[in-house]
């Protein structure tokens, strides 16, 4: 009896030895130049179609979650994974972790396409990278899924408590966003508190619902919206003082002190920026700026932007801590430092007259350059 091996791996290694004659282009091709490795994964029998992108291992093994999403096509998935993996390099650097940046996307609807076999096939691909990439949860994947992936590889974190993991990373993600928001409030209003301020939270799923609790405990007034009505209903049922609005447009148009995008990326484009009444933008969503010009536009309007990858690093701090044997108290102390990091980013932005987005990049790049340079040191006896 014969069997057909259906696991397929298409790899692009994008390091210093890439083809010098390959034409330079804008868009995806330009961004590929900054990635060390991009692996396309396919297993026909389980239906797995995935892309793993390793942006940088300058600080250590690339660490970043796996997103399970019904992308329109492979090109859209590639666009997303390249942007997300690059963001993880900067996020991990700014968070002080000894990890580079990577990300993976699985193409499909997690509600209907996810299966044990698919996740285990994906785990085989992660294992094939030999530890260059460590995966965790993201949109569409959960700690239980990482338990399944871990049955095929040693490079999955963010696992359930029952399997020795840290459990839900959204808890410390929300805590870190709250700390970043406190630092932004100090920068704008002189005190690190949201007491008496009105905060609009767009997206009250995994992270947003925990953020709402922190804000209410701090004395803030909270408005919420979400494309999934049951998420809104659950938050309002738990916190009757929260006011729900119909959609994001209505939320943005409301009188706000702080706008907190906590859903998918690209939440801030020029029309949204021009419509905002808030003095601060600080939320959990990744890649919030639709373009570099949006950061400058926020600055011109006098709106303080707390860079997303700076403030939403609590989750990656948590899953990185798990690799050392998880301690919630230790991980929470590390996540609390997001307050100081955000304060420093805003200080640099103010001192140099640049947007916080540019300032955050500079602070992260300085750490990457400084630490990666240590590899050149040779100590003799």
From TrEMBL:
GO biological process: amino acid metabolic process
Pfam families cross-referenced by the UniProt entry: ELFV_dehydrog, ELFV_dehydrog_N
The UniProt record lists the keyword Zinc: no
UniProt organism field: Marmoricola endophyticus
Annotated region described as Disordered, given as residue ranges: 1-25
Active site: 103
Residues annotated to bind NAD(+): 203-208
SMART domains per record: ELFV_dehydrog (SM00839)
Protein name: Valine dehydrogenase
């Amino acid at each position: 009896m014969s069997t057909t091996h259906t696991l397929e791996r298409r790899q692009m290694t994008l390091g210093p030895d890439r083809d010098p004659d390959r034409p330079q282009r804008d868009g995806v091709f330009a961004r590929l130049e900054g990635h060390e490795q991009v692996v396309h994964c396919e297993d026909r029998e389980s239906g797995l179609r995935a892309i793993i992108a390793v942006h940088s291992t300058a600080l250590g093994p690339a660490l970043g979650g796996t997103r399970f999403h019904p992308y329109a096509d492979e090109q859209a998935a590639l666009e997303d994974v390249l942007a997300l993996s690059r963001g993880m390099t900067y996020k991990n650097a700014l968070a002080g972790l000894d990890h580079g940046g990577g990300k993976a996307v699985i193409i499909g609807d997690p509600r209907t396409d996810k299966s044990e076999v698919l996740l285990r096939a994906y785990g085989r691909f992660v294992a094939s990278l030999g530890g260059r990439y460590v995966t965790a949860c993201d949109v569409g994947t959960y700690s239980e899924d990482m338990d399944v992936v871990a049955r095929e590889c040693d490079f999955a974190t963010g696992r359930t408590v029952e399997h020795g993991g840290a459990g839900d990373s959204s808890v410390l993600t929300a805590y870190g966003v709250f700390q970043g928001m406190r630092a932004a409030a100090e920068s704008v209003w002189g005190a690190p508190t949201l007491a008496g301020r009105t905060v609009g939270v767009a997206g009250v799923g995994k992270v947003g619902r925990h953020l709402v609790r922190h804000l209410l405990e701090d004395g803030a007034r909270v408005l919420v919206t979400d494309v999934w009505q049951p998420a809104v209903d659950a938050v309002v049922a738990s916190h009757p003082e929260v006011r729900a609005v119909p959609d994001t447009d209505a939320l943005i148009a409301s009188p706000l002190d702080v706008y907190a995008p906590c859903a998918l990326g690209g939440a801030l484009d020029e029309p949204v920026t021009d419509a905002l009444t808030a003095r601060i933008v600080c939320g959990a969503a990744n890649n919030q700026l639709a373009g570099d010009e949006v950061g400058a536009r926020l600055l011109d309007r006098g709106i303080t932007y707390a860079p997303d990858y700076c403030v939403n690093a609590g989750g990656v701090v948590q899953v990185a801590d798990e690799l050392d044997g998880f301690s919630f108290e230790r991980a929470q102390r590390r996540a609390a430092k997001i307050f100081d990091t955000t304060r420093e980013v805003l200080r640099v932005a103010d001192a140099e007259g640049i947007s916080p987005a540019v300032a955050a990049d500079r602070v992260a790049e300085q750490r990457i350059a400084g630490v990666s340079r240590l590899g050149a040191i040779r100590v003799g006896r």
